[in-house]
């Protein structure tokens, strides 16, 4: 996909200084620019690179005045960083602009879908599935019976959506993610074996949720596992049956949340955090990476450690943790003197 400087300036409402017909087909950092690439200069500490960059086009602020000769064509805008971000978004939309139903693929009886559906090859849509407008389902995906997918959703290659799952509008689900698999429910028997407890609930994902690659969200035993609107989940997260995650909470990679735990709104959770089951986490909670949470947490707390405790207390305690060998040696010396 190629764009000229004039086309880019039109998208960004900018001014071309140089060759309006200069063409680019890739993006680059200013210090790594090559022929055919587009870059930007926003941070003054990188200003020296604009005189040596081999990028064909560079987006700069209106206030930029070159001190030496340039080989790159400039596009002057009010805010170079925001304009470049806008261009990235536009580029991503163009790149994902697919439609049509590729073959081979299977659409079962009773399926309804809206306008501009893209269904990649080797995908399977189960019975009575409802799919909204402008949905992109990439190859090798599976949508189980009676699932509902809202408008403007993207399911990347290899996503698995089990039956009865409900997905809202403007959701993005990355490759390898599984939604609606059975919760981990087993009851011990008298002879020492475990009998599976049927998992007959579902998963509900509200609007504007993004889910990273290879994340697993289990269906509820009864009722629903719920991911509220605006939640952002990283790669490789495990969310167990009947968990509820509140609006606009963000969770980093490799976090595990045990069954029936409720997490509040606007929380920020670091990587590799472990949550015990059947606990409640308040709103606006911050939990540092690798913490272990085994009890209810009030609104606004900041935690670290395993088991986790107040972040400020943890930092103070850590000073003593790292000095333990020295403290033990001093105690031993005192014992010898007293003897």
Walkthrough of the structure:
The chain starts with a strand and ends with a helix. The protein is an alpha/beta fold and 339 residues long. The model has no long low-confidence stretch (mean pLDDT 94). It folds into two domains: 93 residues, 3-Layer(aba) Sandwich (Udp-n-acetylmuramoylalanyl-d-glutamate--2,6- Diaminopimelate Ligase, Chain: A, domain 1), CATH 3.40.1390.10; 215 residues, UDP N-Acetylglucosamine Acyltransferase, domain 1 (3 Solenoid), CATH 2.160.10.10. A twelve-stranded mixed sheet has the order 8-11-14-17-20-25-28-31-34-37-39-40. Strands 9-12-15-18-21-26-29-32-35-38 form a ten-stranded parallel sheet, with no helix packed on it. A hairpin with a 5-residue loop joins strand 22 and strand 23.
Give the name of the CATH architecture of the largest domain.
Answer: 3 Solenoid
**What gyration radius follows from the Cα positions, in whole Å?**
27 Å
Number of DSSP-assigned strands:
40
Name the helicity range. Answer: 10-25%
| Average residue pLDDT | 94
Strand proportion, as a percent range, falls in 25-35%
Summarize the structure.
The protein is an alpha/beta fold.
Mind sketching the topology for me?
Elements (H helix, E strand, L loop, with lengths): L2 E2 H8 L2 E3 L5 E2 L1 E2 L9 E4 L16 E5 L11 E5 L2 H16 L4 E2 L4 E2 L4 E2 L4 E2 L4 E2 L4 E2 L4 E2 L4 E2 L4 E2 L4 E2 L4 E2 L4 E2 L4 E2 L4 E4 L4 E3 L5 E3 L5 E4 L4 E2 L4 E3 L5 E4 L4 E2 L4 E2 L4 E2 L4 E2 L4 E2 L4 E2 L4 E2 L4 E2 L4 E2 L4 E2 L4 E2 L8 E4 L2 E3 H12 L1 H15 L1
Parallel strand pairs: 4-5, 5-6, 6-7, 8-11, 9-12, 10-13, 11-14, 12-15, 13-16, 14-17, 15-18, 16-19, 17-20, 18-21, 19-24, 20-25, 21-26, 24-27, 25-28, 26-29, 27-30, 28-31, 29-32, 30-33, 31-34, 32-35, 33-36, 34-37, 35-38, 37-39
Antiparallel strand pairs: 1-3, 2-7, 22-23, 39-40
């Amino acid at each position: 996909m190629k764009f000229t400087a004039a086309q880019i300036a039109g998208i960004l409402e900018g001014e071309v200084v140089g060759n309006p017909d200069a063409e680019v087909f890739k993006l680059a950092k200013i210090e790594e620019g090559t022929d055919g690439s587009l870059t930007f200069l926003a941070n003054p500490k990188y200003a020296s690179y604009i005189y040596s960059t081999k990028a064909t086009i560079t987006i700069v602020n209106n206030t930029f005045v070159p001190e030496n000769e340039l080989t790159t064509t400039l596009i002057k805008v009010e805010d170079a960083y925001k304009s470049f971000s806008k261009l990235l978004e536009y580029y991503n939309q163009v790149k994902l602009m697919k439609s049509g139903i590729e073959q081979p693929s299977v659409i079962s009886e009773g399926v309804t879908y809206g306008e501009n559906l893209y269904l990649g090859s080797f995908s399977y849509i189960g019975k009575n599935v409802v799919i909204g407008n402008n949905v992109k389902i990439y190859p090798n995906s599976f949508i189980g019976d009676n699932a509902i997918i809202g408008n403007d959703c993207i399911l990347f290659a290899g996503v698995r959506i089990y039956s009865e799952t409900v997905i809202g509008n403007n959701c993005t689900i990355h490759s390898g993610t599984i939604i609606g698999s059975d919760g981990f429910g087993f009851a011990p028997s008298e002879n020492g074996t475990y009998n599976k407890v049927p998992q007959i609930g579902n998963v509900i994902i509200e609007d504007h949720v993004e889910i990273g690659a290879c994340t697993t969200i289990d269906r509820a035993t009864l009722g629903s596992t719920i991911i509220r609107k605006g939640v952002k989940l990283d790669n490789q997260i495990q969310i167990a049956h009947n968990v509820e995650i509140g609006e606009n909470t963000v969770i980093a990679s490799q976090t595990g949340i045990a069954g029936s735990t409720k997490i509040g709104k606007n929380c920020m959770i670091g990587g590799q955090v472990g949550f015990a089951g059947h606990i409640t986490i308040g709103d606006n909670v911050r939990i540092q990476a690798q913490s272990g949470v085994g009890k209810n947490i009030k609104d606004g707390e900041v935690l670290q450690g395993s088991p986790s405790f107040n972040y400020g207390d943890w930092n103070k305690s850590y000073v003593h943790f790292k000095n333990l060998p020295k403290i033990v040696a001093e105690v031993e010396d005192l014992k010898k003197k007293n003897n």
